[in-house]
Amino acid sequence: MNFLEDDYQDIREGVRALCATFPPEYHRKIDAERSYPEDFVDALTREGWMAALIPEEYGGSGLGLTEASVIMEEINRAGGNSGACHGQMYNMNTLVQHGSEAQRSRILPKLASGELRLQSMGVTEPTTGTDTTQLKTTAVKKGDRWVINGQKVWISRVQHSDLMILLARTTPLSEVKKKSEGLSIFLVDVKQAMAKGMTVRPIANMVNHETNELFFDELELPEDALIGEEGKGFKYILTGLNAERALIAAECIGDGYWFTDKVTEYVKERKVFGRPIGQNQGVQFPIAEAFIEIEAANLMRYKACALFDAGKPCGSEANMAKLLAAKASWEAANACLQFHGGFGFACEYDVERKFRETRLYQVAPISTNLILSYVAEHILGLPRSF
Ligand SMILES: Cc1cc2nc3c(=O)[nH]c(=O)nc-3n(C[C@H](O)[C@H](O)[C@H](O)COP(=O)(O)OP(=O)(O)OC[C@H]3O[C@@H](n4cnc5c(N)ncnc54)[C@H](O)[C@@H]3O)c2cc1C
Known about the structure:
The chain is an alpha+beta fold and 386 residues long. It folds into 3 domains: 9-113, Butyryl-Coa Dehydrogenase, subunit A, domain 1 (Orthogonal Bundle); 120-231, Beta Barrel (Butyryl-CoA Dehydrogenase, subunit A, domain 2), CATH 2.40.110; 235-379, Butyryl-CoA Dehydrogenase, subunit A, domain 3, CATH 1.20.140.10. It contains 12 helices and 10 strands. The chain has helices at residues 9-20, 24-33, 38-46, 65-77, 86-98, 101-113, 190-195, 233-269, 281-309, 315-339, 351-359, 368-379, and strands at residues 120-122, 138-142, 145-156, 163-169, 183-189, 198-202, 211-222, 226-227, 271-272, 275-276. The strands form 3 sheets. The protein has a 4-stranded mixed beta sheet. Strands 2-3-7-6 form a 4-stranded antiparallel beta sheet. Strand 2 (138-142) and strand 3 (145-156) form a beta hairpin. The model has no long low-confidence stretch (mean pLDDT 96). Bound molecules: flavin-adenine dinucleotide. The site of flavin-adenine dinucleotide (FAD) has 23 residues, from strand 1, strand 3 and helix 12.
């Protein structure tokens, strides 16, 4: 159930039909085994959903971020986890918008057909964290090669991706006017890189999210690995990050509806003290409140996507949508776990898995505090704190 009607029923029905062929047992097993949902991602690719944002001339369906967000929402709403594949959506957008014609025509048709995956984006570093412009990974031009040295952390889906977008400093911080200048993005062929200077070390973590430490030791990339203009990578990566935030807002909304649907059904059925627990207002109110918050977050998500699709600035809206949706899905997760009582902790109900999965989004891809500080300083004009 949700209150908002939208114009995307065809997409919703198509993705729902596919997701119905991957029942809860499938996702539960993948989670328990800490494996990758290859069959699921392959099916999404085969049916063309992963190519939503690829322009038609490159074999995709040429849809907007709004439609892509509906696809991601439906996966999470059906009990799956878009975290296994959402990288391709926002990364390909960076390539579509900032890649050269040669890069686009070489890569995009292969992404559309499923021959290649572009699931990874390497931004975060262990010593600088959220303070992205201070990152230490360098790319130095030597003849017709770029030589990469440094380290990244929490880089997701590298082991299930053929390509990765990497952010590195090409001009030393001391030589740029603004700290956001002098950063560049590169398209890295993962397998080739692993054979000549990139080491991948998996990080065991709370969710079944394949994520890694990366070490670069004199990794050589060809000249044409650079995406767009040298030194403008931070600006380019923000396009991808805004898309990522709007998509993850949609995923949280999908999670939120999954939790409210699941708990609503349960509290109608479960009888304690001779009546359904859902008859108690102490049970009803947290569920109703979470539902209201999900609906409200949904409005901001559509606004962020509409601005993005219109080519207008959407940083504030994408950030606010992500914050609202991550909070709403977390409230819904808490209510769902709480009112399942002990059964909420049993893996077979899927509540504990979805609870872990949705919790991530208050920290990654940007933490709640950093969104609050962005709004405080950039929208409200409060003094900068850092
Ligand atoms: C499962 C997972 C997958 C990820 N996947 C990727 C990926 O694919 N690619 C990638 O590049 N990154 C990825 N990340 C990294 C993620 O984007 C970062 O973890 C996140 O941005 C936070 O950065 P950090 O961990 O360095 O935290 P830090 O920057 O160390 O911050 C730690 C805490 O301190 C708070 N904090 C920091 N500074 C301030 C301040 N000035 N005011 C108030 N609070 C502050 C933050 O809000 C945060 O809660 C992933 C992370 C996880 C956990």
